Structure formats: structure tokens, C-alpha cells
Amino acid sequence: MIDISNVSKSFSSGTKAVEKLNLTIQDGMIFGFLGPNGAGKSTTIKMLTGVLPIDEGTITINGFNIADHPIEAKKSFGYVPDSPDLFLRLKGIEYLNFIGDVYEVPLEARKEKIEYLTKEFGIYEALNDTIQTYSHGMRQKIIVSGVLLHDPDVWILDEPLTGLDPKSSYTLKEMMREHARKGKTVFFSTHVLEVVEQLCDQVAIINKGKLEFNGNMQEMREQFESDGSLEQIFLELTKHE
């Protein structure tokens, strides 16, 4: 479970990136977080994961306050950032073993999980190559594999489908569904609105740092008196951007 309570963030320029944001994401839910560029999505995710400090308000993940108990909170989630260009000098297998060490994944279980995940994403044969030789899509796959390696309760995914081929995209979406079916939480941002309609139990739209909508697709259509697609409603909500 994720609870974001009255969270605000400003930058030195005076720009208020996020203003009094309130969201609760229950266990067993796939939650889609949407907004145009510069709306505050990435800032929110960086506060959620402890990358950026919170100016006001609180964020708790599985009952742990990210500011007061960062280690406990971070052990309970896996995070895919919006750029996969990380640890480029490591080989794929070195990176995954590093993640396994950080999260204390037992060696035998780790070996099985690495083989399963990397075969599912089609990068098993490239594990002994350095990540800097990988394509963008392969880098995305190795980062996702690392996130899933320790089987965290909460997945926080920032544009996770970017660069993935159709098969890998389908595989990840099925993994997201299975994770939620187990009573766990998936929080993800994306610009692919059709995926949100297919996958999400709940959707939030942020614009200019403020929450414009939070609910399911039926509630969205009722609130905006529209039978249109999420794309049409989203464009209407953010048309003044």
C-alpha cells in the first residue's frame, strides 16, 4: 500500500512542481499515474522513492515513512526509473548479482530467478556483455529484471514499457497483472493511454502539480460526462497546458 498525504515540492526557481497531492493506492491494485510533460509526475515518483526530499506532507510505503524509515521503505519496493542508462560498465550478470547482494537474495533462488526473468525478456544470452553495449530496450529489460529479482511487494515503474519490443511488453504487463492478483501493488506512469485502459484498476491525472482526477475509468466517464476514450478525456483535461 502507498499513501501520499498533502505532499508538496518546490524548486529553487520558485516553481511549485507538486502541490498538496493526496493519493492512496491499495494492495492488489494496478495504479496508473498520468500527466503531460512537466506536470509533476517524475517529481512525485522521485519523492515516492526517496530520490528527492519532500518539502511538505508525508509518504508511506507498506506502513514505512519514506523520510523517517528510508531503508525499511526501500526494501519493500522495486523502482524502474525513466532512464535505463545505469551501471553501464557492469556486465548484465554483474549488475543482477549486485542487486541480489543489496537485497540479500539467496544464491540458489537468485540463480533461478535471474535465468527465468532474463529468458522471459530475451536477454539471457547477453548477460556476459557489458550494459553499455546493450540497446535501449535491452537496458530497460535488465533494469526491470533487477527490480523483480527480490520480489518486492510494491512496484514503482516510471515509463516501464518504453523501448520494449511487443513480446517483452506483453510479458511485463502479464507480470503486473499477476503481481496485483497476489494482493500486491503496482504504481506506474506511462504516456501509452491504451495500456492504462487495458490494465489499470485506478487512474490519477496530475496537471501543473495538482491532482485533476483520481478514480476508475467508470468514475472518470461519469465525472466528465463522457463516453470517450481515456485519450479524449485526458486531452480535454490538459488542453490548457
Give a description of the structure.
The chain has 241 residues and is of the alpha/beta class. The protein has 2 domains: 1-76 and 153-241, P-loop containing nucleotide triphosphate hydrolases (Rossmann fold), CATH 3.40.50.300; 84-151, no CATH class. It is 38% helix and 24% strand. It has helices at 41-48, 70-75, 92-102, 107-120, 136-149, 166-181, 193-199, 217-223, 230-237; strands at residues 2-10, 16-25, 30-34, 56-61, 64-65, 77-80, 154-158, 185-189, 202-207, 210-215. The strands form 2 sheets. It has a 6-stranded mixed sheet with strand order 6-7-8-3-9-10, sandwiched between helices. The longest helix is centred in the C-terminal third of the chain and has 16 residues, at 166-181.
Structural Rg: 18 Å
CATH architecture assignment of the largest domain: 3-Layer(aba) Sandwich
User: Largest beta sheet, briefly?
Assistant: 6 strands, mixed
Q: Report the strand count.
A: 10
List low-confidence stretches: none
How are the strands of the biggest sheet laid out side by side?
Answer: 6-7-8-3-9-10
CATH superfamily of the largest domain: P-loop containing nucleotide triphosphate hydrolases
Helices and strands, in N-to-C order?
EEEHEEHEHHHEHEHEEHH
As for the number of domains, it is 2
- State the helix count: 9
Report the top-level CATH class of the largest domain: Alpha Beta
The protein's oligomeric status is single chain
* End-to-end CA span: 31 Å
The helix content is: 25-40%
Shape: globular
The mean pLDDT is 91
In the CATH scheme, what's the topology name of the largest domain? Rossmann fold
Structural category is alpha/beta
Organism: Pontibacillus salicampi
Protein name: ABC transporter ATP-binding protein
Domain ABC transporter: 2-233
Keywords: ATP-binding, Nucleotide-binding, Transport
